[in-house]
């Protein structure tokens, strides 16, 4: 036991002791080591020498070594299919086809789902003209992976290239049993057509449209028949397609194709019947292309007026059904009116308008009236622009304004449109009367602005002043109105009135208190203003705004603004402005802050120092000295020496005063010490 312990101790390596632990004079980094290795190319191995094989023994030795390398690679990772393929291709290059087959078979045992492996295997057999072997591989591939279309394409192509048409057809039939994608069916059809087998192609189409029953496939089937001159068959295909899809799944493209086919056959009556049948059953939104083609057809071959009458009457019937079902469906009324305006007589259009505006919204809420009011607007515009009847236009406007419940809500648009109409008719008093009535009944910002704009265009500035006064009585919190009023006075050259308007505006209490939802916008405006100017009044106003917002955290935001302003104004030359900011901050902390907050602001307050400076006269000569007060801020780093010097001077002065007092009264000090 002791011997084994001694032997174990002997096997423990000794740790080398480093005598000098000081850093080396020249330090070498990992980057330097890598750079030197790259420069010297230490890791690059020279290429192996070219080996010339002179006899069969050397060749067998080379093959053995190469195969051992490939087998080792495969043994390391069997799932890397590229190693198997390289191995098989190398054997193929040596014409060792049997060995290559063996390798491919071993690889398929590992991963039979690998598409590349099957393709390389089959290509090897085809390159070496091993047709039966290739067929065997393709059969196994399509049996194992029937959904891989590439196998089927390659297999059929090989059979066709070999001239084995029956074999290729058989493969296609096996493929079609799996109901593949559309392109596979087209490949089969094209294969049959290459060999003039039209009947077989027709049979394939019959199966195709049942497996993939899309409209485009039926159309392709019919065009196939038309292309080969079987017009009766093509017509029958179209008719079967119409019957197949029925009324539930009608598609305009099918009817357009059917109609064009009949048009090519000069069967114009059939074309009309097809278009009418489709238009009667397909909704307007889904039949745009159909209607377009029908119109083109009638322009080419028919009586345009007749077809337009048919379409208009059909649409009119549809709209009548819609408005009967829901009289308050104003969108349907708009479409109906657009239709009759384009074709009908004025009396018919008026009748439809009168029926439409009779459907007044049952609830007196503005959101229910927004669509309805446009019926009146369109009616008035029709009477003015199309019917050229100003008197009826005036009656329409007046009737609409009498109908609107102005006590609950109004539509400024109607008042302004009526006023503009009267101006176009050169009836200025009527326009002013209408706008005056609107402001009296239902004042709105938009009405005031429209009336003022009218008077400005007429250069009636006294009327504009009166309107602005009424406007500001109605909405004194509207900043834009004050500004526009002042700008008007400025343009007119009355600066004193403009200044007085601005003074009145800023004295309004509601201007200084934005609504809660406008707080963020006001904050952004302050930030944009501070990008242009760093004036102390802007900072103080910003802080007071945050304080007056009344939201949670307003005190912290206000304090943050003061801190930001103080940092910004450190480099400001106007020290009085900085002092004004600090005084405002101190007042804020006196009211809302804690003791520590107050002390912190007090420490920022400057020292007031009296200084002297030279004064120069206007002619540049010396005019003596003058005294002035300067402020030295504690946190101003540039003035720290001055503050220190000032503090030392005060201390020295205090010490001198105490010393003089002690010298003047020595007896008092002795008495105090004795007592």
Radius of gyration: 50 Å
Biggest sheet details = 2 strands, antiparallel
For the secondary structure, the number of strands is 2
Distance between the amino and carboxyl termini? 94 Å
As a percent range, the share of helical residues equals: over 70%
Strand order in space, largest sheet: 1-2
- Output the structural class: mainly alpha
Poorly predicted segments: 1-9, 512-517, 667-675
> Which word captures the global form?
flat
- The proportion of strand residues reads under 5%
Let me know the average pLDDT: 78
Specify the number of helices: 35
Subcellular location: Nucleus speckle
Pfam families: HAT_Syf1_CNRKL1_C (PF23231)
Biased composition (Basic and acidic residues): 655-667
Keywords: Coiled coil, mRNA processing, mRNA splicing, Nucleus, Phosphoprotein, Repeat, Spliceosome
Q: Secondary-structure map with pairings?
A:
Layout: H1 2-11, H2 30-40, H3 56-76, H4 81-93, H5 97-110, H6 115-127, H7 131-144, H8 149-161, H9 165-176, H10 182-194, H11 198-211, H12 215-227, H13 231-245, H14 252-264, H15 268-281, H16 288-301, H17 304-325, H18 330-343, H19 346-357, H20 366-369, H21 373-386, H22 390-403, H23 412-424, H24 428-441, H25 445-457, H26 461-474, H27 479-491, H28 495-506, H29 519-532, H30 536-548, H31 554-568, H32 575-592, H33 595-604, E1 607-616, E2 622-632, H34 640-664, H35 666-674
Antiparallel strand pairs: 1-2
Helix pairs in contact: 3-4, 4-5, 6-7, 7-8, 8-9, 9-10, 10-11, 11-12, 12-13, 12-14, 13-14, 14-15, 14-16, 15-16, 17-18, 18-19, 21-22, 22-23, 23-24, 23-25, 25-26, 27-28, 29-30, 30-31, 30-32, 31-32, 32-33
């Amino acid at each position: 036991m002791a011997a084994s312990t001694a032997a174990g101790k002997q096997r423990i390596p000794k740790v080398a002791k480093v005598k000098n632990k000081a850093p080396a004079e020249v330090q070498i980094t990992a980057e330097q080591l890598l750079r030197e290795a790259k420069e010297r190319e230490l890791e690059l191995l020279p290429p192996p020498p070219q080996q010339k094989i002179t006899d069969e023994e050397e060749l067998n030795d080379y093959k053995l070594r190469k195969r051992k390398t490939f087998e080792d690679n495969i043994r390391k990772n069997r799932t890397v299919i590229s190693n198997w393929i390289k191995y098989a291709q190398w054997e193929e290059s040596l014409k060792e086809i049997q060995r290559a087959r063996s390798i491919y078979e071993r690889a398929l045992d590992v991963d039979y789902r690998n598409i590349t492996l099957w393709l390389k295997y089959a290509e090897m057999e085809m390159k070496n003209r091993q047709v039966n072997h290739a067929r065997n591989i393709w059969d196994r591939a399509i049996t194992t992976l029937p959904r891989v279309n590439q196998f089927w394409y390659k297999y059929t192509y090989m059979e066709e290239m070999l001239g084995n048409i029956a074999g290729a057809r058989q493969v296609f039939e096996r493929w079609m049993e799996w109901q593949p994608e559309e392109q596979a069916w087209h490949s089969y059809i094209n294969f049959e057509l290459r060999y003039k087998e039209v009947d077989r192609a027709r049979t394939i189409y019959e199966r195709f449209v049942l497996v993939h029953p899309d409209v485009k496939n039926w159309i392709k089937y019919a065009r196939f028949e038309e292309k080969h001159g079987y017009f009766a068959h093509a017509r029958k295909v179209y008719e079967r397609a119409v019957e197949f899809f029925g009324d539930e799944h009608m598609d305009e493209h099918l009817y357009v194709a059917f109609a064009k086919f009949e048009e090519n056959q000069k069967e114009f009556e059939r074309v009309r019947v097809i278009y009418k049948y489709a238009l009667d059953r397909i909704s307007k939104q889904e039949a745009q292309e159909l209607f377009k083609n029908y119109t083109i057809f009638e322009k080419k071959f028919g009586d345009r007026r007749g077809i337009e009458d048919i379409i208009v009457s059909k649409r009119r019937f549809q709209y009548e059904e819609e408005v009967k079902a829901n009289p308050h469906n104003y969108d349907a009324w708009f479409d109906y009116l657009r239709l009759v305006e384009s074709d009908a007589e004025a009396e018919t259009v008026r009748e439809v308008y009168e029926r439409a505006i009779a459907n007044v919204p049952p609830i007196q809420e503005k959101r229910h009236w927004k669509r309805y009011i446009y019926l009146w607007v369109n009616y008035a515009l029709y009477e003015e622009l199309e019917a050229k009847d100003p008197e009826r236009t005036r009656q329409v406007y007046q009737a609409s304004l009498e109908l609107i419940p102005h006590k609950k809500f109004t539509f400024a648009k109607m008042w302004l449109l009526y006023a503009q109409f009267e101006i176009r008719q050169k009836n200025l008093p009527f326009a002013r009367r209408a706008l005056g009535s609107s402001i009296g009944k239902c004042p709105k910002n938009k009405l005031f602005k429209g009336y003022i704009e009218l008077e400005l265009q007429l250069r009636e500035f006294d009327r504009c002043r009166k309107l602005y006064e009424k406007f500001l009585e109605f909405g004194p919190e509207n900043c834009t109105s004050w500004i526009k009023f002042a700008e008007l006075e400025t343009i007119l050259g009355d600066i004193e009135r403009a200044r007085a308007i601005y003074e009145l505006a800023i004295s309004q209490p509601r201007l200084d208190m934005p609504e809660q939802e406008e707080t963020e916008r006001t904050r952004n405006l302050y930030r944009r203003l501070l990008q242009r100017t760093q004036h102390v009044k802007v900072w103080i106003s910003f802080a007071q705004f945050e304080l007056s917002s009344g939201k949670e955290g307003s005190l912290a935001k206000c304090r943050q603004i003061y801190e930001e302003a103080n940092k910004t104004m450190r480099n400001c030359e106007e020290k009085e402005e900085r002092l004004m900011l600090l005084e405002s901050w101190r007042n804020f902390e006196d009211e809302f802050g804690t003791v520590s907050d107050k002390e912190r602001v007090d420490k920022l307050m400057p020292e007031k120092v009296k200084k002297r400076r030279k004064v120069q006269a206007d002619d540049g000569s010396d005019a003596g000295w003058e005294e002035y007060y300067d402020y030295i801020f504690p946190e101003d780093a540039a003035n720290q020496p001055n503050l220190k010097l000032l503090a030392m001077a005060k201390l020295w002065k205090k010490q001198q005063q105490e010393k003089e007092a002690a010298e003047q009264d020595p007896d008092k000090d002795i008495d105090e010490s004795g007592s």
